[in-house]
Here is the input.
Amino acid sequence: MSDTPGLPEGYEFSADSARVDVGRVHGWLSSDAYWAIGRTRRTQERAMASSLNFGVYATASGEQVAYARVVTDQALFGWLADVYVDPSVRGKGVGTAFVGRIRDHLAPLGLRRLLLATHDAHGVYAKLGFRPLDRPDQWMVHSFE
Here is the structure.
């Protein structure tokens, strides 16, 4: 899509699950992401195995600097989850460009909806066309917790 900001120089996007540094991602999420504090590595690995996984990497070192996954049927619906940008690269536009690239990667699938939940990043996602639910009264959730 033409409104997708480019990644800053020195960073590259990848949709290759094999490239994801699972240990690094688990460390980020289980210790620094409010929605995943305490998540076990086994749980993280199971979630990743059932998702499309994405990363941003420093081109010079190959080090992973961002991660996200999408749970999807690859036909109608997707849920963007576990979006995390390493604190060392926050504020450089990596996160916005990353989510834009994920959205664009999914576009050819013809999904009708890509949902996400966020506590504090509404502005980032709004720049990329995300908006509050039109009819939140139609949505329900069941929690196993």
Observations:
- The beta strands are 11-14, 52-58, 64-72, 77-85, 113-115.
- Residues 94-106 form the longest helix (13 residues).
- The domain at 11-128 is CATH 3.40.630.30 (Aminopeptidase).
